[in-house]
């Protein structure tokens, strides 16, 4: 919305800054941050009042969780979603189709997560929305988003998978691109969801990934930079940097209340929405494989669950003491803060590896 003030620059030159993506990204970050700071306490009080006993805690989890986390309200993702959406609408170019597609996935996945959280609180059980129904809805939203992305602009690789570290390497997926992209988005959403198990564990890696993809979107959407770095130029994706800035700002605001001991959990409302947003941005910028690198921590968490379930079904034995893997480390003696901070470090290192793909070709 504020982007259109830049059109008045001929009358007042100071308004020209609203044309710059970098300025509006910074504005979106600050706006989302202060929005969550301002309305966060009220949301927490309301959710605590409505939920009573808060989010159900798994009885098979670490024993300390039953003492330290019981009674904490969930659905804190509403804070992140509202801050991100309002800030994005305020600072981005609303004529940009990529912005609307990412917002569609973010809000859609958030709504699915909200219903899941609602059922968990209502039933006082960690089992919510049926897994198959949830995946079908997520896949439907994601595939529609990928189809829309593939029809935007006229680029040589609209239906291709691009490989990092190798200049010009691409695999044309044709009509299968929408299915592949949908799989990426659904996987990203559920991977972040699996990672969200400790105070602050998921939100910081999400912000790290959002920062990386804010930079990637800016470079991919700028022909000068994309030509210099030999990366695929996708006109219009630079505007997604503003949305990434909003994600970071809302995430920082949420972390203020989610820092241990957490006053609120993001729940599936937040984790599904954030993962879906990152997956959609990766598809739009043609950096799906890079997402698997930058979001390698989310991949690790997901793989640990797959390995655990597969091993138990085939052999009756568990590989880890508990999955996802962050609970395994709690069971072997790491404190919650040790797990969280060490996983943050892993996420930061993986982000650097992923960003190196922009130059190493």
What's the quick description here?
This protein is mostly helical. The protein contains 14 helices and 2 strands; from the N terminus they run αααααββααααααααα.
Topology, please?
Elements: H1 21-51, H2 63-68, H3 77-91, H4 97-123, H5 131-151, E1 160-162, E2 170-172, H6 177-195, H7 203-220, H8 223-229, H9 240-258, H10 267-284, H11 288-294, H12 296-315, H13 325-331, H14 336-356
Antiparallel strand pairs: 1-2
Helix pairs in contact: 1-3, 1-9, 3-4, 3-9, 3-10, 4-5, 4-10, 5-6, 5-10, 6-10, 6-12, 7-9, 7-10, 7-14, 10-11, 11-12, 11-14
Description of the structure:
By secondary structure, the chain is mainly α. It has one domain. 65% of the residues lie in helices and 2% in strands. The chain has 14 helices and two strands. The chain has helices at residues 21-51, 63-68, 77-91, 97-123, 131-151, 177-195, 203-220, 223-229, 240-258, 267-284, 288-294, 296-315, 325-331, 336-356; strands at residues 160-162, 170-172. A two-stranded antiparallel sheet has the order 1-2. Helix 7 runs parallel beside helix 14 and helix 10 packs across helix 11. The chain starts with 20 loop residues before the first helix and ends in a 5-residue tail after the last helix.
């Amino acid at each position: 919305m504020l982007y259109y003030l830049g059109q008045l620059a001929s009358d007042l030159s100071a308004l020209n800054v609203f044309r710059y993506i970098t300025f509006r990204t910074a504005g979106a970050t600050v706006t989302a941050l202060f929005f969550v700071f301002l309305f966060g306490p009220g949301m927490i009080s309301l959710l605590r009042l409505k939920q009573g006993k808060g989010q159900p805690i798994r009885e098979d989890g670490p024993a300390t969780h039953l003492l330290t986390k019981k009674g904490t309200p969930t659905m804190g993702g509403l804070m992140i979603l509202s801050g991100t959406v309002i800030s994005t609408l305020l600072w981005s170019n609303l004529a940009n189709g990529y912005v609307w597609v990412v917002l569609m996935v973010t809000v859609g996945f958030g709504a699915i997560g909200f219903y899941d959280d609602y059922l968990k609180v209502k039933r006082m059980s960690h089992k919510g929305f049926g897994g198959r129904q949830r995946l079908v809805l997520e896949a439907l939203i994601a595939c529609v988003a990928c189809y829309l992305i593939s029809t935007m602009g006229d680029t040589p690789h609209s239906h291709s998978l691009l490989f990092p570290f190798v200049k010009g390497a691409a695999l044309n997926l044709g009509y299968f691109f929408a299915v592949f992209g949908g799989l990426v988005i659904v996987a990203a959403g559920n991977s972040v969801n699996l990672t969200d198990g400790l105070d602050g564990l998921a939100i910081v890696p999400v912000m790290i990934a959002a920062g990386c993809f804010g930079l990637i979107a800016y470079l991919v959407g700028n022909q000068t930079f994309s030509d210099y770095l030999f990366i695929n130029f996708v006109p219009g994706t630079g505007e997604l940097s503003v949305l990434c800035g909003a994600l970071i700002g809302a995430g920082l605001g949420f972390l203020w209340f989610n820092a241990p001991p957490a006053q609120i959990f993001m729940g599936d409302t937040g984790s599904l929405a954030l993962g879906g947003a990152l997956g959609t941005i990766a598809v739009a910028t043609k950096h799906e494989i890079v997402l698997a690198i930058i979001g390698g921590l989310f991949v690790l968490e997901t793989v640990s669950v797959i390995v655990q379930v597969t091993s138990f079904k085939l052999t009756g034995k568990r590989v880890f003491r508990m999955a996802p893997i962050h609970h395994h480390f709690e069971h072997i003696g790491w404190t919650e803060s040790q797990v969280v901070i060490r996983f943050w470090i892993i996420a930061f290192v993986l982000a650097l590896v992923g960003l190196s793909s922009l130059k190493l070709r």
